[in-house]
Amino acid sequence: MIGWIGLLATIARADEYYLEAAAVPDRAAATRVEQVAEAAGFKPRVVRRFRLGKGWEFVVLVESLPGEAEAAAAAARLERDLGAKVTAWRVEGNEKPVSVALLVPPPVAAETGAAAWIERARVAHGGATGGAGAVGRAGAVHFTFSRTLELGGKQVAIHHDYWREGASRRLVVDTAGAGQDSLSVATASGAWIRAGGQVQVRDIGITIGMVDAFAPEAVLTVALEAARLLEGAEVGAFHPLEGAESGLRFGAGGDESETGLSWVDIDPTTAQLARVRYVSEAGPITFELSGWRKVAGGVLVPAEVRVERADGGKESIRVEGLDLLDRAPASTFDKPA
Prior knowledge:
The chain is of the alpha+beta class. About 25% of the residues lie in helices and about 40% in strands. It folds into 2 domains: about 5-105, Alpha-Beta Plaits; about 110-335, no CATH class.
């Protein structure tokens, strides 16, 4: 039985959490398992290994999970999707992998109350180690998205391409003809903006502040801070509410004008947030989040966010990519030509 010895060679680093689906006898069956895992938002890979007395078999792995709670929740979800055994493992140094107990999801909200569902959602969104914290720890961040909003009575999609590494920033704004396109760059040695064919020198601090308004932490605040929001003091009073368009709604009920989180809709299949109502000093804002997927570092992001504000203003944000890298390409922060 090669088992854990063979698998240790496939794990990238110590103290790693990973999932292992039940072994299958051929590559075609492994591909089907791989496709289910990808549809669930994971980035699986297939490993072929030899099992004494049985010949070759194929195992699908999901690696680099951030912690035990996240691994357990991910294994429980994938096991439901596959209808087959999935094991969560923890590797510590060169020790033999140790299995992690799965978090078995409660079947219905009425049987468990709000607290259990909110904890499931907190874990599903990265717990203490995921979200904005994981994005902030990346050496370099590349974020591309389109924001659709109403300008002059028309729906306009504006594309943004954001980079950061250390104190350097880069932002490309493409208005698709609705306004003036621009390229902004800030480094420790200077800052510039190119717009209308002209390059102008800008203040470094002001430019960084302007560009960071389009950082993932600013644009996807509710999504990347989901786990932290679900730990707020007001959440302790949440209970099941009526009115969810889909899934399960939990909130405090009563006066919904107080600042803070009013209610959340949770998808009972994935424990991911579907809708969130948050009251700021400017009034209530409703966020509809869909198409959740995991990116590098186990960060969970939605493919689309629909926002509706108290004044009736609406916008839609479509996330095209979020890459967490060690470094940006060498020419990323060059002064605009």
